[in-house]
Design brief:
444 residues, mainly alpha, 23 helices
């Protein structure tokens, strides 16, 4: 059996094992190791490539950004900044029909800019936004759908963990990826707000919350903008430290993660909302996240080497080129593949498995890999809202702890947001400048 056959079987086997429930890094690493062994008929070569993958991952400074941004996000969540942001957004939008839904999107967009995590956003806003929206009369399906849909903003608005992983896989600048994610992230948030307004006026029974303005007016009668601005100041400080530091040339992305973690810890201490027990829990959770992601990257590095040994990317690229596809036709195939895989495996795995296969064929089209990365993340993130995997929906189900709210309710509520996300994806494909404008403006 030749290298090409082994490579194809390996890719199919990896996806199948992940779908059957095998731990993703184990599936990637084990099948890749065995694939090299079979192709070269020498286990020593497979061991050498595995050792090289581990050494490369550990020695690269860029990987230090993973635990640092994870630590910052966890501290922010523990410090209660998500609740503060949500209260400010509520005060700003409660007068609008469907206003608390818009407030949830706005708060999630701001929260994403200091955490970069879909799971953190889904978990925090399930506990913060869902009880409030239901108290104001919003329907359950709409409520959980808003939280699920807006939680994916954390994977697009910087600092995003998925943009970091994509940058590592394709050897792109993390800073450039962060800048490219700003306009698409804002565009998606605005599209969600328009969707909520349309649902509130066209399908009021699905949305509910008709009396929310009156209830909210009573709740916030004594609140002033100054009170709420004080709650927003810590968030502004963190955004300035992290994103301002990166875009201002003060910090590298890794240094910005360290500075952001320190600033988040200082804010949590000043708010007196952080105990020694909380600090220990955050450090342990950061360790879990870091170990998981680095194990995944090591396995993905081994997988890339296996593909190289099998020459599969080159053959796959030549095969696609043989169809004489236009770039738009290629992107249609790619997007459909992203969305389909997103329903069964999570985003990081999709990036690590599929992107290396397409890199060769993209060279012939002179595709900007930064723009391609934005398309990849958005396309794969749609799967977070769709069955059977739908990680965001499962996180919400776990966090809401309410037996009356079923998974089908959450998926049904998230469906309009998944459709909206797909429309935004098509816009980003049709107009690459939306992703590249800020980079061209600053000539970064």
């Amino acid at each position: 059996m030749g290298g090409i056959e082994v490579g194809i079987i390996s890719v199919v086997l990896i996806v199948s094992l992940i779908y059957l429930g095998l731990y993703i890094p184990v599936a990637l690493g084990l099948v890749s190791f065995l694939g090299v062994w079979v192709i070269r008929d020498n286990p020593n070569i497979a061991v050498a490539l595995l050792s090289e993958s581990i050494a490369d991952t550990i020695s690269e400074l860029v990987f230090a950004s993973v635990p640092l941004f994870a630590l910052m996000g966890l501290i922010v969540a523990k410090a209660g900044l998500g609740k503060d942001v949500y209260e400010v957004a509520n005060f700003a939008f409660y007068r609008i029909r469907g206003g608390l839904g818009i407030a949830t999107v706005a708060a999630n967009a701001i929260f994403a800019s200091i955490t970069g995590s879909t799971i953190a956003s889904a978990s925090v806003f399930t506990r913060v936004a869902v009880p409030e929206m239901r108290r104001f009369g919003y329907r359950t399906r709409f409520t959980v759908g808003v939280v699920a849909g807006s939680s994916v903003l954390g994977m697009l608005i910087p600092p995003s963990a998925m943009l970091i992983i994509y940058a590592i896989v394709t050897e792109q600048s993390i800073g450039r990826m962060f800048i490219a994610g700003i306009i698409p992230g804002i565009l998606l948030a605005v599209a969600y707000c328009i969707l909520i307004l349309a649902l509130a006026y066209l399908l009021p029974r699905f949305v509910g919350g008709q009396d929310s303005a009156n209830i909210a007016a009573e709740d916030w009668a004594n609140q002033t903008w100054m009170d709420l601005i004080r709650k927003l100041v810590p968030v502004v400080v963190l955004v300035l430290v992290v994103l301002g530091g990166i875009y201002g040339g003060v910090f590298t992305p890794t240094e910005a993660g360290a500075a952001g973690s320190l600033a988040a810890l200082a804010i949590a201490v000043l708010k007196r909302s952080f105990t020694w027990k909380d600090l220990w829990e955050v450090l342990v959770e950061t360790g879990y996240i870091t170990a998981t992601i680095l194990f995944l990257i090591i396995s993905a590095s081994m997988y890339s080497r296996m593909l190289g040994v099998a020459a599969l990317p080159t053959v796959f690229g030549e095969w696609l080129t043989g169809f004489d596809l236009t770039l738009n036709e290629l992107m249609i195939i790619y997007v459909l593949l992203m969305v389909a895989l997103g329903t069964i495996i999570e985003t990081a795995s999709i990036i690590l498995i599929v992107v290396p296969l397409f890199l060769v064929v993209l060279d012939s089209f002179n595709v900007d890999l930064v723009w391609f990365g934005i398309i990849t993340v958005v396309g794969a993130e749609i799967g977070l809202l769709t069955p059977p995997l739908g990680i965001s929906c499962f996180v919400i189900k776990s966090a809401i702890n309410d037996p009356t709210v079923s998974l089908s309710d959450i998926f049904a509520g998230a469906f309009p947001f998944a459709v909206t996300m797909f429309v935004v994806l098509l816009i980003l494909i049709a107009y690459p400048q939306l992703s590249l404008f800020l980079l061209e403006l600053g000539a970064v």
